[in-house]
User: What shape does this take?
Amino acid sequence: MAGDIPKRRKGRPLGKSDAGKIAFRLPRGHFEYLERLVTSKRRLGDTVNDAARFILIRELDEMLSSGYHDKDY
Assistant: This one.
């Protein structure tokens, strides 16, 4: 049931204590774009890793709340 899934806070993820580890490579253009957002625009976190984590968590939260796993595509 959707009620069994703990809700995450809105905004930037806090801490890494309960986080699992994940590693992946981004295409150069995507990495550079995140780097630009972080360094010059000061958005989505303090590092490129923070920005990527923020976006991934935001998208997964949206998938969970929309019931993406139950859709038959």
Notes: The two ends are 21 Å apart (CA to CA). The chain has a mean pLDDT of 82. The helical segments are 28-39, 48-66. Residues 37 and 43 are 6 Å apart (CA to CA).
